Amino acid sequence: MAAQLATGWPAAVDVLNENGRSDIVLLCEHASNHIPAEYGQLGLDISHLQRHIAWDIGAAEVTRRLSVLLDAPAFLSGYSRLLIDLNRPLGTSGSIPVLSEDTDIPGNIGLDPSERARRAEIMFAPFHDQVAAHLDRRAKDGRPTRIATIHSFTPVFLGISRPWHAGVLYDRAGDFGEAILAGLGVDGALNVGANVPYVISRDADYAVPIHGDDRGIPAVLIEIRQDLLSSRSGIEAWANRLAAALPAQQKEKAS
């Protein structure tokens, strides 16, 4: 489709270090807050595009740094989650939200099937097709693989405080998730929890169930509280923490 090649229509996925040697594959489905001009900011004031409803603040920077530290391939989204959420199954209420937290999204109300299909074709399918193709190649080459998806969360959601500094979410990858939690737990000052600030569900999540669990690949979703990623030093600190925690599973498997 020509539209995504025009000015203001970036690639749906930014692939970094595709041939990296790590057994970790990094995904960042909410890396960008970009909305092409034709959508008129979906009827929102521009200030909303800097909020967590439009992207996961700081997650892209952590992912990029982790890719370097781990020598890991990384896949980052090119469009705002408000247009279509890459970590929600197509057709669900969260896929193209009409309400995000307490904010109405006027440009998503009353969409016809053709516009839904257009967004899926331009923004959703290319991202997940490239991830799937990469995982297929690794499997064909016999390369061990683990998936870590990098996200950030707002400290307060619908008026409820979220006290955790980070969460590690998983369904079938309990060993991998617990190994990361143990690695992060070395710093006793951190409040890190399992399956917080929410629980992964096949009805409401996509990357971990589809790319991980369904393939038998250990996969986790890592959530970092976004206020901890508001500075370059905070981003660097969390990238370093995760780089130290993620290889713990590699060493455990190799022993």
UniProtKB/TrEMBL annotation:
InterPro entries in the cross-refs: N-FG_amidohydro, UCP029730
Protein name: N-formylglutamate amidohydrolase
Organism, scientific name: Mesorhizobium mediterraneum
